[in-house]
Amino acid sequence: MTETREAMLRVNQAGEFGAIRIYAGQLAVMGDRTPISGEIATMAQQEAAHRERFDALLVKRGVRPTVLQPVWSAAGFALGAATALIGPEAAMACTAAIETEIDRHYTEQLEQLGDDDPELADMIREFRDDEREHRDTALASGAERAPAYPLLFNAIRMGCRVAIAVSKRI
Predict the structure, then answer these.
(1) Using CA atoms, how far apart are residues 30 and 19, in angstroms rounded to an integer?
(2) What is the pLDDT of residues 77-105, one digit of tens each?
(3) Nearest-CA neighbor of 135 among 127, 108, 10?
(4) Of the four listed, 56, 73, 91, 139, which is most buried by Cβ atoms within 10 Å?
(5) Quick one: pLDDT at residue 20?
(6) Cβ–Cβ < 8 Å for 28, 81
(7) Residue/partner pairs of 122-126 with CB below 8 Å, 24 or more apart
(8) Is-above-0.85 flag for pTM?
(9) Are 41 and 22 in contact (CB under 8 A)?
(10) Out of 2.40.30, 1.10.40, 1.20.1260, 1.20.58, which CATH number does the structure's domain 5-163 have?
(11) Is the separation of the CB atoms in 97 and 40 below 8 Å?
(12) Are 95 and 43 in contact (CB under 8 A)?
């Protein structure tokens, strides 16, 4: 299915917002007491920078954000807090799952855009590379040692797919 530029911007901004909220939930539970807290804080800063740039592009192009931001705020924070309560490895499993799905999502968008919108494509490509780094950091930080990793990983990816599909439209 072909995605409009407006839908791309809306869903990508929503995703960056959701990531910020996930990391906020994780840090609320873990604070700076774990070895991965610094990595999470750094990833959260990158996601905030991504969101700022998508926010600016939404305004520039006259695209409204998703009306579901309050839902994503609460859901993201809850997911982050819940995975952090399970433990640092589960928090990293959450990052690995989401960034795996976002890598797939951004790659599909880049294939669809081709050379038609260099400004948006360059932004998506840059952010996709950052998301890949986040995934790799999560895996190197023990994501696969999380309790019930395959179940947790795939459940979070499925939730991410649903959030993407809904945020494109609403």
Answers:
(1) 16
(2) 999 999 999 999 999 999 999 999 999 99
(3) 127
(4) 91
(5) 95
(6) yes
(7) 123/53, 123/54, 123/57, 124/8, 124/12
(8) yes
(9) no
(10) 1.20.1260
(11) no
(12) yes
Q: What distance lies between CA 43 and its chain's CA centroid?
A: 10
pLDDT at 76: 95
**pLDDT < 70 regions, the chain:** 1-2
47: left (phi over 0), alpha (psi -120 to 50) or beta: alpha
Cα→Cα distances 26→46, 79, 89, 112, 134, Å? 16, 8, 11, 34, 15
Q: Where are the domains of the chain?
A: 5-163
C-alpha pair distances (Å), 87 with each of 19, 23, 75, 84, 103:
18, 14, 18, 5, 24
